[in-house]
Amino acid sequence: MPDFDGGAGEYVSARDYAQHFQRSVGSPKKLNAVSLLPKQVREFVEDSVRLCRPSNVHICDGSEAENSLLIDRLLENGTIVRLPKYKNCFLARSSPRDVARVESRTFICTAERRDAVNVPRDAVPGQLGNWMSPADADRAVAERFPGCMEGRTMYVIPFSMGPLDSAYSKIGVQLTDSAYVVCSMRVMTRMGARVLERLDGGEGFVRALHSVGRPSAGAAAEHPGWPCDPDRTVILHKLESNEIISYGSGYGGNSLLGKKCFALRIGSSIARREGWLAEHMLILGVTDPRGRKRYIVAAFPSACGKTNMAMMQPTLQGYKVECVGDDIVWMRFDRNGQLRAINPEFGFFGVAPGTSRATNPVAMDTVFENTIFTNVAQTSDGGVYWEGMEDPAPGVNITDWLGNPWTLGSSKPAAHPNSRFCTPAEQCPIIDPNWQSPEGVPIDAILFGGRRPKGVPLVFEAFDWKHGVFVGASMKSEATAAAEHKGKVIMHDPFAMRPFFGYNFGHYLQHWLSMETAVPHAKLPKMYHVNWFRKDDQGKFMWPGYGENCRVLDWILQRIDDEPGTARPTPIGNVPTRETFNVEGLQVDFDELFSVSNDFWIEEAREIAEFLYEQVDQDLPKDIHDQIGNLFSRLNQNNN
Ligand code: GTP
Ligand code: SPV
Ligand code: MN
């Protein structure tokens, strides 16, 4: 019989579970957590217990004591090891088959396919998400979940996306059989007993059921310490009932369900109904040398520089950047027509490789306390190592992410390219004083960007809101290690949301377009496209990036202030004039960085048009159709 007195957490046997809620016994503290479960939460837990048959149920209170207990359990199981070089830091090594999001097994479930995904022309395969019928979803669950938690504990995680006192915030309850997920959710979300108090008012919540799964009979043996079922992984989003059901993976966005599943997929669908935006964007505050502060948001695809930009250390004198969020934004126009944004998250789940004192010193000052690293390399002095990080001291040995000895200069990477740090946002030395402000921060500019080695200038400005929406729709980027795609193919990634749309992309475009007139006198932010990743003929980056990206912000702020003489129109948008874009002290080829080749862009426009017509077909808004026409006519005029 499981123990009711098991330390800080609440332990309830599955069998006695239901009765226990009614019984008023036990210590006052335990009684609290259990009896506080509001009715709908209790029903969700009970239904899931019946399905998954865990041997214990643990209702998470979010306390420090509970966390230590779970960490001890993870250390015991060999899921994590302690990193004695730092304070309260741990390293997890996942199964080598469970290292990133699996986009091909991620589905939006609705009765009507067209509500969930774009419906391409001529039965062309859709590139912007996958649909599954409710019947197939039920079958997928029935084939995987019964008894999947046998011998394990089911953890109940009440969590809030957004500050608890914000009207923008939404609540979820995740059930999981992974203590690693609980510890990570504690970093990434506001989690625990205080969330349940808010739920008590009868407010709705997002149901999120997660199991790392267990391989079906005959499948390969489990990786010690990291059970998973990669052959049968599936991640389902039922829009009509605000439910997430994830099976088979313990990694990142597959398992920390508050993040991509809730805050983006379910979130964008709720946002459409309620008239706001849930986006894959960073939020930063930038103060100029005159002391004026502006906030901007930026949508870059996975592993394209959001965390780095959100923590930027500007190289230009007198500039200061402060971080509100590095991955997700929820934003809406307030009654005065001001766009306001919150970061629904509580931590950073950041890409480790490439992070160094030179590139992102702020991240380096953030991550060496209270952090769970996953799939980075380990050093013999109890620290971590990854590609791009300063070399360890002589005599220090390195063990790679697979647990094998590794030497500097080896052809294989020491850390997995999608290895991550999971670290509390409040530890960031430049966290914005308003980052938890319940009413959000006011937004003055929206940036889009991606990895574009050829043809795309460092920055250009959209002519107006509709054109900006078209620029977002036209985004493309080189594939990254954050998902299962192989190689550096350039993929369409509209709004950096390709893997995260919660509903039909055509409807999503219409929703963005509708914002222009959604509130009277909306102060529409200016929109930009940036590209830190243009390469020269030798294949070298033409732009130093990182802290130097503040020069792009410097120009954008001049544009927001309507300073004269700052822009030169091109067919694709406004680019900076030489006089107003500061490249002082840099060895860069200004003309090449900002060149807009007509030949390249005619080809690009053709390809974008084909993509949009083919993928979105019937649901492509007329405004976007017009934008395509406008782009072609600007390019053709330019040719003449
Ligand atoms: P997700 O967490 O997957 O959504 O990624 P992200 O958009 O937050 O990307 P992140 O900031 O973690 O950067 C990913 C990789 O791009 C890292 O290896 C960075 O070093 C690299 N990177 C970021 N900014 C720049 C830049 O300005 N120039 C260059 N060349 N590389 C950059
Ligand atoms: C991304 O891939 O955009 C991430 C990492 O931020 S994950 O949480 O795994 O989605
Ligand atoms: Mn991301």
From TrEMBL:
Tell me which GO cellular component terms the UniProt record holds. Answer: cytosol
Where, if anywhere, are coiled coils annotated?
none
Reaction catalysed?
Answer: oxaloacetate + GTP = phosphoenolpyruvate + GDP + CO2
- What Gene Ontology terms for biological process does this UniProt record contain? cellular response to glucose stimulus; gluconeogenesis; glycerol biosynthetic process from pyruvate; oxaloacetate metabolic process; propionate catabolic process; response to lipid; response to starvation
> Which residues are the signal sequence here?
none
| Tree of life domain | Eukaryota
Establish whether keyword rRNA-binding is in the entry. Answer: no
> Known CDD domains for this protein?
PEPCK_GTP (cd00819)
Q: Which EC number(s) does UniProt give?
A: 4.1.1.32
- Please name the HAMAP family in this protein's record: PEPCK_GTP
Oligomeric form and interacting partners: Monomer.
- What function does the entry list? Catalyzes the conversion of oxaloacetate (OAA) to phosphoenolpyruvate (PEP), the rate-limiting step in the metabolic pathway that produces glucose from lactate and other precursors derived from the citric acid cycle.
What is the protein name given in its UniProt record?
Phosphoenolpyruvate carboxykinase [GTP]
Please tell me the species this chain comes from. Nipponaphis monzeni
| Lineage per the UniProt record | Eukaryota, Metazoa, Ecdysozoa, Arthropoda, Hexapoda
